[in-house]
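Researcher: Good morning. I'm working through a list of sequences from a screen, and I'd like to move beyond sequence-only analysis. For each chain I'm collecting a predicted structure so we can compare shapes side by side. This is the next one on the list. No need for commentary yet; just the structure.
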Amino acid sequence: MRQKLDDLYEQYNRRAYVHPDPLEFLYFYEHVRDREIVGLIASSLAYGKVAQILKSVSRVLKIMGESPFDYLCSTPESEILLHFDLFVHRFAKGKHLSALLIGIKHIIADYGSIYNCFVDGYSSSDDTIVPALTVFSQKIIASSDDCCPVNHPGHLMPCPDKGSACKRLNLYLRWMIRCDDVDPGGWPGICASKLIVPLDTHMFKISGQLGLTDRKQANLKTAIEITEGFKNWAPADPVCYDFALTRFGIRNDLAGNAGLVMKLGI
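Model: Good morning. Structure tokens for this chain:
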């Protein structure tokens, strides 16, 4: 199975297969200080139909201009609230997005970057990234609440301590920590072996077929169990197969989940 997964990685873990995926927005930003902001926005909005995701992310980034970092540093909170007042992405309204952006703005003011904030809660002795992710999520939420008490990022910023699989946040960490032909990276010093699989519908289904879990709920416990299973094949980088495995449920030019099942022989 490891050889089949490695072959799948070699064939499909390429930028040619990225579109349509919010990850593609990160490629337009050379500086990590911009890319990490774009990644957090893009991953936070990565739910629903992919066409709408791309449209929503594009709208946000157009307002923020060439440098999202400069935009957040120079734009008063009152203007951020005004700029995104009419924003809607499924359950997310302008007040949710504004609270998230203002929270990021204050994190940057306090730590200098999102990365610095994240590593402040990271320990190489932790078995997984979950403790650091929990601290990070709490800091973003606290910063949002402190400076924007009438609003709250809501579901745009989930927290692992509530049992959520935090699929979108784990996706964000995959983008920022790993570095290959698909994931652009930019956050050094964080071990990829501690990452958790971003558990969406496609990954949950194929993981069951691979025998990595028999759980019925796609929660954090399930995500950790599946990640442990992938460590049998890729102990240093258990989420490396995520992109290739999920392409079959996203791209119309591939043969869907049935095609993936045939390739893996399961």
